[in-house]
Amino acid sequence: VELKLIKGVEGAEAVLTRLDPLDFNGLPESVSAQTRRIFGEGVSPEESVIRILRDVRATGDTAVRHYAKMLDNIDLQDMLVSPAQMDEARAAVSDDLRKSLELAAQRVREFHEAVMPSDWLDETKGLGELVRPLDRVGLYAPGGTAAYPSTVLMTAVPARVAGVKEIILATPRRGNEPLNPAVLVAA
To answer: What stretch or stretches form a coiled coil here (predicted)?
Structure first.
């Protein structure tokens, strides 16, 4: 590990704002072939992301479905989980797993309630802090190769404790399989 000594504000600013060029020459041929197939030409990963984001901004879910199919060969029919799917997920998990998730959620909630910051003001020093929740947050729970209901609990429960009104969870499918029931139950 190389340690670098940084002196002064200017030195810190120079290091923090530096843009190192990314080396894409080492990309596997399969990645280059995929970008040619998707975009009709070879483009860098950075340019791929720029194009995908531009398309998503322009056409929304249509672009998301298109790129899910092109990149991962996944057909996204409905990106929202229905109440019936939630009921199926609850029926699919064992009582032991459900109870474990409930206990974990309770413990996470108790911890975050105990450490929840509050407003404070020091009038003599003229400083303080107002603590306000966000109205809406987006959460991501990995799930492509393994399910992580713990990630749902460790992100959604603190958001609820903080008073966030709207919480949106995104998690990938494994191929065209249904979403993992434990992740849905944790939500």
So the answer is: none
Q: Please tell me the distance from the alpha carbon of residue 149 to that of residue 36, in angstroms, as a whole number.
A: 36
pTM of the predicted protein model: 0.70
Portions of the chain given CATH number 3.40.50.1980? 83-186
Average model confidence (pLDDT) across the chain: 90
Looking at residue 118, its pLDDT comes to: 94
The length of the chain in residues reads 187
Residue 65 neighbours by CB distance under 10 Å: 16
pLDDT in tens, 53-70: 999 999 999 999 999 889
DSSP labels, 93-105: S-HHHHHHHHHHH
Token pair belonging to 181: 């029931």
According to the CATH classification, is domain 83-186 in 3.40.50.300?
Answer: no
Burial 92-107 (b: 16+ CB within 10 A, else e): ebeeeeeeebeebbee
How crowded is the C-beta side of 169, counted as CA atoms within 13 Å? 24
- Backbone torsions φ then ψ of 122, nearest 5 degrees: -110, 95
